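Marked as duplicate of an earlier ticket. Keeping the data here for the record.
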Amino acid sequence: MKTYPEFPIEIFYDGACVVCSMEMEHYKRHNQHGKLVFTDISKPDFHADKLEKAYDDFMKEMHVRDANGDYYTGVDAFLAIWSAYPARSIYNLLSKIFSLPGVRSLADLGYALFARYRHLLPKKKVDCDSGTCDLKHRQK
């Protein structure tokens, strides 16, 4: 990870992705100090252009933005998230392991493969009363 993030950090995740949603729900349950803020980019009220980024960039890989406006993506995004948890947590251990050079290379490769093919995973079923929730018709 380039530097340690300034908290709070905002996590931009695809809420339509079952795996992504499950992981974010886990982080939400353990967000005791409010250091993490969650933004579901699959919702119709998400507008990437307000963040001066393309929607496709957010969909390509997970993004985290810290209080200074610095972005962390891919594995760096996870390292930023994990840094929000106490030093004696499992996340601190994961952060140390994933920062090791050989492990980091494998993590980068694994995440790149996941990000590239996650669209093939089942989508999360969401209730939609507005009729604008279909991502295929979303304005970018």
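See parent ticket for discussion. The helical segments are 18-29, 55-60, 75-82, 90-99, 101-117.
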